[in-house]
Amino acid sequence: MSSNEIIVVGGGLVGAAIAYGIARTGGAVTLLDQGDVAHRASRGNFGLVWLQSKGAGFPRYARWSRDAVDHWGPLASELAELTGVDVDLRQNGGFWMGFSEKEMVEREAMLAEINADGRTPFEMLDHAQLKARLPAIGPKVVGGSWCPLDGHVNPLKLLHALHAGLKLRGGRICNGVDIREVKTHGSSGFQARSADGRSWTGNRIVLAAGLSNDALASQLGLHAPVVANRGQVLITERLKTFLPYPTNKARQTAEGTVQLGFSVEDVGLDDGTTVSAIEWIAKRAVTTFPLLATVKLVRAWGALRVMTPDGAPIYQESARFPGAFVVTSHSGVSLAGSHAFEVAPWIAGVKTPPPDLEQFAGERFLDPNRKFSNAH
């Protein structure tokens, strides 16, 4: 590898978007991908380009999420033109649905906080107003919220397009790589070493390794506390279109199947499925959309989210080892455009960092005066 190579550790949606963004700046980049044996969050991603729940209590994250949705149209168009892969972007708005007046009141307060700068429009709808837009909802749905900026994509097509685009732009992907050690190399470089003894060197390194970031980051003077959070997802048979918008509980894909989710479970590194969670997701889906009661389920699976203590991303360059970066986020779909168009050029050294990026530093979790919740 050349000495000016940038190594990106982690080939999921976050690492792939970063690597793709570096390549589109003309930078030499190698993506080290553990492959499908990894606890890849991309497999369980619900595919939402979602704005209306991110950033309450963290104004910079709210602004970051708002800017990210504007990148999505250009990113999808660019990937389609370059790779021929249509990631099935549908960004025509999205609905959250509530089952009690208490949920509705809490939701409106949260959205008002997120929309403090007036850039995240939303509308609260009662049952009748919501049913006028989504006729299939059930009588137990009290109401909901609507944001015209939300949407959804196919996350697996997105991952495929980012990998394909990276290679077409001259980047390199090494598959089956389980990085266990990262360290400085020479006077101004870094080395990543895999479990089987292989190594890669470059003058910059990006840790985008999901759950492995917790162990890897500390080796380069960075703090990236992350934990696993399991979500189980169900897929139905193909149906005639009845759900033209994504919701927080179900979305109908471009193929006609309906994706149902999601559970939130603290079970360590277990990415399996359970009867109890599948039953709970299915019952909630039928309560939300009664027409699903007679629909066949064709698949169920579990995957692990990568969660920080507050649910917000970590973006940071090591003060002790400049040229080493950590990037961690559970919003790999929603933030993909920002990762490719804003974070990657900063890492590549061709642009200054986005404003106030230091607010995403991992050291925020060391502040004894702050309390965190990763509810999302």
TrEMBL record:
<dbReference type="InterPro" id="IPR036188">
    <property type="entry name" value="FAD/NAD-bd_sf"/>
</dbReference>
<protein>
    <submittedName>
        <fullName>FAD-dependent oxidoreductase</fullName>
    </submittedName>
</protein>
<feature type="domain" description="FAD dependent oxidoreductase">
    <location>
        <begin position="6"/>
        <end position="338"/>
    </location>
</feature>
<dbReference type="GO" id="GO:0005737">
    <property type="term" value="C:cytoplasm"/>
</dbReference>
<keyword id="KW-0560">Oxidoreductase</keyword>
<dbReference type="Pfam" id="PF01266">
    <property type="entry name" value="DAO"/>
</dbReference>
<dbReference type="InterPro" id="IPR006076">
    <property type="entry name" value="FAD-dep_OxRdtase"/>
</dbReference>
<dbReference type="GO" id="GO:0016491">
    <property type="term" value="F:oxidoreductase activity"/>
</dbReference>
